[in-house]
Design a protein that fits this description.
Layout (H helix, E strand, L loop, with lengths): L7 E6 L20 E2 L3 E2 L1 H10 L4 E5 L5 H10 L10 E5 L13 H6 L2 H6 L4 E6 L2 E3 L3 H10 L4 E9 L7 E5 L5 E6 L13 E12 H12 L7 H9 L5 E5 L11 E3 L3 H10 L27 E3 L1 E2 L3 E2 L2 E2 L2 E2 L4 E3 L2 E3 L2 E2 L4 E2 L4 E3 L2 E2 L4 E2 L4 E3 L1 E3 L4 E2 L3 E3 L3 H7 L1 E2 L5 E3 L6 E2 L4 H18 L1
Parallel strand pairs: 1-4, 1-6, 4-5, 8-12, 14-19, 17-20, 18-21, 19-22, 20-23, 21-24, 22-25, 23-26, 24-27, 25-28, 26-29, 27-31
Antiparallel strand pairs: 2-3, 6-11, 7-13, 8-11, 9-10, 9-11, 15-16, 29-32, 30-31
């Protein structure tokens, strides 16, 4: 099957406010949130694009985009401008009116001027806030082979869970015949009554069809959304097909995550700490790229069993981290985290630049970037105190921001004695 990559342009929609991921999106766009240690959410869709052979990529940004813009500028200047390749940010320009982006389709419509100047035959529309691995060139081949005007990617999901998604109704040839937005009674796949096809928010359009549809939609009082408005309007007049997600993750179950809530984000990160996680970060054949500051290797120091010991167990530890005489289990530490002695961190996500003071105890928490955890802090052990001081999710995950004041306990005599003994031994060794 031909791979029409030179005729294709990608636009990544990375401008959502990410309200359900608040407070992690208080000062940054959702695609700029860290995931799995050094990576950010936007890195997964961009890595997919580069691994697929696509080199003409626009990113449409909007809300709180400074850190996202900086990350793209510093970490994704890997294509050749001399060969006409680019990964370029499209800030809102209000070319067609005085409003910001009103929906996914409107975001593309407002950027048609920039898109058409590249003269693509196909436009690939991607969301910048999902975690998965996918070869978009395969989908392009499917699109061309079916002589489709529009192709949308779809994930097979159990019918019992399908009401959480936009469901694509198809016939026996996977031609789209309908679209159901979070239906109570989802339509199953023909011949497979226990499965339905969920839209992944990934679309390929023939440009002439897309331009006509967007211009028509802009004149109508719609939500200006691809799933709700554009795709349903094209089903009866154009050849619209569903492409079944082919997972490059190389696992038994297909992996695609919309980590749009704090609990979903937390659980997806915790999965990475498993011996055999569902999402494979270590596949050399499908590299995941990001920007990382120059940082020394991570290290764990002090090995005084029963007194001051610094193990990291079942955890993801990023470059620049120092675990000094503390225990870290089942956690993700982003770059340049410093954990001082006598701490215990369990099932937590610790963002870059965090400093954890001595004797802190942290459980089932997300510690935001550059937070200073005070000596003797207790997080994740007292639900009432946590709710009074921090954001706490429905599943009990505590989110600690820079301005929060964690509960601090008084240290008992035993803890103080261990500390004094350890410090004394350190002085003697230094001599």
């Amino acid at each position: 099957m031909p791979r029409p990559l030179d005729d294709s342009l990608v636009i990544v929609l990375a401008g959502g406010a990410g309200e359900r991921l608040y407070p992690l999106t208080k000062d940054r766009a959702k695609p700029a949130v860290y995931f799995g240690g050094p990576d950010r959410i936007i890195d997964f869709v961009l890595s997919n694009g580069i691994n697929s052979g696509l080199r003409h990529i626009f990113l449409a940004t909007q809300y709180k985009s400074l850190s996202l813009n900086r990350h793209i500028r510093m970490g994704w200047n890997i294509v050749s401008e001399e060969l006409g390749e680019f990964i370029e940010i499209l800030a809102p320009q209000k070319r067609v009116g005085e409003h910001w982006y009103q929906g996914t389709a409107d975001a593309v419509y407002q950027n048609l001027y920039s898109i058409l100047r590249e003269q693509p035959r196909y436009l690939i529309v991607l969301a910048g806030d999902h975690v998965y691995k996918m070869d978009y060139a395969r989908m392009l081949g499917f699109h061309q082979g079916r002589r489709a005007a529009v192709t949308l990617a779809a994930l097979e999901v159990p019918v019992a869970d399908a009401s959480r998604f936009g469901i694509v109704v198809v016939d026996e040839e996977d031609r789209v015949r309908g679209f159901e937005e979070k239906p109570q009674v989802p339509s199953p796949i023909p011949g497979t009554p226990d499965l339905a096809l969920a839209s992944m928010g990934i679309y390929i359009f023939d440009m002439d069809v897309l331009v006509r549809s967007l211009e028509s939609d802009a004149l109508q009082p719609t939500t200006h959304d691809f799933g709700r408005d554009i795709i349903p309007s094209l089903i009866h007049d154009e050849r619209v097909f569903a492409y079944r997600f082919y997972d490059e993750n190389k696992k038994a179950a297909k992996y695609w995550r919309d980590i749009g809530t704090l609990d979903a984000y937390f659980e997806a990160n915790m999965d990475l700490c498993q011996v055999n996680p569902e999402f494979n970060l270590y596949d050399q054949e499908w590299p995941l790229r990001t920007y990382q500051h120059q940082a020394p290797p991570a290290k764990c120091v002090f090995a005084e069993a029963g007194k001051r010991c610094g193990p990291a167990l079942d955890s993801v530890i990023s470059p620049g981290c120092i675990i000094s005489g503390s225990t870290v289990t089942g956690s993700v530490l982003c770059p340049n985290v410093r954990v001082h002695s006598f701490c215990h961190i369990e099932q937590s996500i610790v963002m870059p630049g965090v400093r954890v003071g001595r004797h802190a105890r942290i459980r089932r928490a997300i510690i935001d970037r550059d937070v200073l955890i005070p000596r003797g802090a207790i997080i994740g052990y007292d639900r009432d105190e946590d709710r009074r001081r921090h954001t706490v999710t429905d599943a009990g995950v505590v989110v600690v921001e820079t301005d929060d004041e964690p509960l601090v306990r008084s240290l008992d005599e035993t803890a103080l004695r261990y500390e004094a003994d350890a410090d004394g031994r350190g002085v003697e060794q230094g001599r």
